[in-house]
Description:
Elements: H1 26-38, H2 41-78, E1 81-85, E2 95-102, E3 105-112, E4 120-122, H3 136-140
Antiparallel strand pairs: 1-2, 2-3, 3-4
Amino acid sequence: MSEIPTEQTPTNLPTPETTTETSISPVENLKNTLGNVLNSWKLKVGLAVAVLFGVFLLTFYWQHIIAVVGMKSWSARSGAKPIECMVRDTNNDEYVSCSALLDQQIVPLECSSSVFNIGCRVNYGTAAPNPRLTNPRASAGVR
């Protein structure tokens, strides 16, 4: 006849094998974890994308950054309040359109977008007319 298997009771269960693992110090564990993260291709690709994006932003806003420096310099010397500059040079003359407030009037400026020529010039061609002098006869007292 065949033998009937005996029930396994807590007393006759196979004993689990105990392994003697060497304990890893927290410093070594941190080194291993950090090493795995730094060797990850995802981190390398992420850093490359971040650097490329940063270079793109710096290149795109470079003209604006230099023009703002020039506008603030011009405003400090003339006693005007800087307003804002356009983001890019729209007519490729290496000058970015800016504006400042001088004696309660907006002054149109063209500020250089080159590091070697930081500064601004007043753009008289597009300056707004003085509202007090639009009617010369009224200012002379002729009616």
